[in-house]
């Protein structure tokens, strides 16, 4: 794809747009002003700054959320506001992808070779998403505002939702659904930290954070309200919206009373801990084997 302020080689030294000419604090304040009451401004007045933020997102210069440490992230609400404004200032248009054509506002990324990303047909990721060099996208989908780290594989029919943040060397198995959190702007996106394994058909939504090195078994569903129960000790510990680092998690069912009847309600069970190792692949295989986790 063409970047309005970059040459075809995506050379940052050639950048001439507003983001590089001004610091992010200035740009963010302008975005906040636009977002507070966009009816005061025309699309043409807002487009220059908004487009420059989309370029910066595409190139990984800015992120919807930034890591401050394991389990500790800062949300940049102004970046999400810029994405929402991008929908407002963009017009519907024909978007070709080979012989297939789409009718949408947001173009697809086509600079895979320059970015160093392996993209297997019919995988696609949109403008405003950043996939680091060395990542692999099988037949999958990465939405606007998302970030995917190097060494990560997004397997067949998996989706990385809008603004989701995926770390380095993550394995996202087939059919995994990582939800998008674009609104409210201050809301935390779904975050998958480095070296996480997500088993087939997992669903991770509503700003849930899966901390570094965790192993999530096939079919686990994690929402903001899903009880994530550590059953490894004498007393259970319940988490919500967060999977602690290096936890091994499988699907579970918990009994809950509704009226006069009891029903099984889905939960997630932490049944062990992935061992520390200098070889993450070895530690993953051992965890899958030791705890008989379906992948």
Summarize the structure.
It contains 6 helices and 26 strands.
Please provide a written account of the structure.
The chain has 295 residues and is of the alpha/beta class. It has a single domain (15-92, 131-288), classed as Hexapeptide repeat proteins (UDP N-Acetylglucosamine Acyltransferase, domain 1). It contains 6 helices and 26 strands. The protein has helices at 18-21, 24-36, 43-58, 77-89, 112-115, 280-290; strands at residues 65-69, 72-75, 93-97, 100-104, 118-119, 124-125, 130-131, 136-137, 141-142, 147-148, 153-154, 159-160, 165-166, 171-172, 177-178, 191-192, 197-198, 203-204, 209-210, 215-216, 221-222, 228-230, 237-239, 242-243, 247-258, 261-273. A hairpin with a 2-residue loop joins β25 (247-258) and β26 (261-273). The radius of gyration is 20 Å and the shape is globular. Residues 1-21 have low confidence and may be disordered.
């Amino acid at each position: 794809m063409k970047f309005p302020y970059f040459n075809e080689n995506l050379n940052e030294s050639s950048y001439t747009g507003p983001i590089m000419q001004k610091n992010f604090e200035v740009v963010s304040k302008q975005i906040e002003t636009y977002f507070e009451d966009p009816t005061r401004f025309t699309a043409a007045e807002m487009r220059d700054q908004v487009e420059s933020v989309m370029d910066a997102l595409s190139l990984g210069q800015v992120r919807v959320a930034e890591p401050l440490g394991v389990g500790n992230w800062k949300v940049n609400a102004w970046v999400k506001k810029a994405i929402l404004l991008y929908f407002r200032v963009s017009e519907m248009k024909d978007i070709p992808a080979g012989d297939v054509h789409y009718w949408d506002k947001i173009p697809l990324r086509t600079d895979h070779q320059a970015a160093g990303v392996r993209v297997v047909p019919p995988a696609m990721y949109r403008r405003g998403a950043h996939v680091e060099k060395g990542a692999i996208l099988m037949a999958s989908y990465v939405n606007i505002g998302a970030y995917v780290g190097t060494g990560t594989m997004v397997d067949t029919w998996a989706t990385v939702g809008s603004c989701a943040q995926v770390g380095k060397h993550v394995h996202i198995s087939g059919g995994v659904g990582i939800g998008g959190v674009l609104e409210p702007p201050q809301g935390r996106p779904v975050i998958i930290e480095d070296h996480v394994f997500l088993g087939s058909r997992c669903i991770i939504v509503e700003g849930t954070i899966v901390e570094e090195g965790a192993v999530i078994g096939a079919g686990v569903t994690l929402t903001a309200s899903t009880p994530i129960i550590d059953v490894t000790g004498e007393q259970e510990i319940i988490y919500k919206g967060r999977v602690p680092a290096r936890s091994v998690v499988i699907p579970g069912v918990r009994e809950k009373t509704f009226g006069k009847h009891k029903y099984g309600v889905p939960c997630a069970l932490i049944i062990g801990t992935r061992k520390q190792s200098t070889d993450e692949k070895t530690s993953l295989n051992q965890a899958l084997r030791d705890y008989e986790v379906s992948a």
